[in-house]
Amino acid sequence: MAVLTAWRAARVTPLGELHNPPRMTAALLRLAVQVVLVASLWRGLYAHTSTTAGLTRDQAVTYAVLAVLASRLRELDQYTGRDTVIQHMHFGTIVYWYLRPLPPQRYYALRALGEQIYGLAWALAGYAVCLAAGVVEPPRSAAVAGVFALSLLLGQWVLYYVMLVIDQLCFFTLRNNAAMLILIFAQNLLSGVYAPLWFFPDWFVTLSGFLPFQATLSVPLSLYVGRIPLSDAGSALLVQAAWVVALALFTRLVWRLAARQVISQGG
């Protein structure tokens, strides 16, 4: 019974996508256009140079395309299905999360797990196509591939907690759309989604090192393209694991505080 309940919770958002073929087609076209534009942009930037910020053209293109594919891991449309925390808080339906047999934190985790598994299927399919087309470089060795996979897993774990903290903010503010947009933008900027962090000033890189955002995407992709050598992989993975533990403890505390804020808003 518990397994069946977990399965039903995990498939909530993916089912919304699978039962809406036009939305899947639009997602496929958007992903394809993003990959083509990003690859073209970085190749154009390297038209008159072979190395910039310690990266070759192929490394930069590989990093940028993998960043686009990795963004598919958590890009499902919860808003259309009215399944975002901010919508539940606005309509007062968040109270039902606390009336179900499944605790809200477990439901949130299972739903996020289902989204990430579904997004992983998209990312792997896109990676296979890009690899076959020569858009991205393959891992330099089996060891690099293994370390990258482990780092990506830890990075997605950190990203889960970062997104959870952003959603938990909804429990303590009534009008937080702008704050959430700012936080999501900061997450993408500081994690290296828009551009590798090595292209930013030293003070920016130093500042981002004290935040968990680097651990979500920049570290795994840096390991893949060789910017972080295997000799330094242990310390990078250790930092990611430390962020997982710290954010897990923090969000657990916030869940307890959030339960005291649950009231029916709007509706």
Give structural notes.
The chain crosses the membrane at residues 117-136, 142-166, 178-197, 237-255. Keywords: Membrane, Transmembrane, Transmembrane helix. This protein is mostly helical and 267 residues long. Helix 1 crosses helix 6 (104-133). It is globular, with a radius of gyration of 19 Å. It is built from 12 helices and 2 strands. Strand 1 (51-52) and strand 2 form a beta hairpin. The protein has helices at residues 2-10, 12-18, 21-45, 57-70, 85-91, 104-133, 142-168, 177-190, 202-208, 213-216, 218-225, 233-259, and strands at 51-52, 55-56.
Short descriptors:
single chain, mainly alpha, 67% helix, 12 helices, 267 residues, two-stranded antiparallel sheet
Number of helices: 12
The H-and-E topology, N to C, reads as HHHEEHHHHHHHHH
Structural class: mainly alpha
What kind of assembly state do the chains in view correspond to? single chain
Percent helix range = 55-70%
Total beta-strand segments:
2
Low-confidence stretches: none
Radius of gyration over all CA atoms, rounded: 19 Å
Shape: globular
Strand order of the largest sheet: 1-2
What amount of the residues lies in strands?
under 5%
Distance between the termini: 32 Å
How would a textbook summarize the main sheet?
A: 2 strands, antiparallel
What is the arithmetic mean of pLDDT?
84
Organism: Streptomyces vulcanius
Keywords: Membrane, Transmembrane, Transmembrane helix
Pfam family, one: ABC2_membrane_6
Protein name: ABC transporter permease
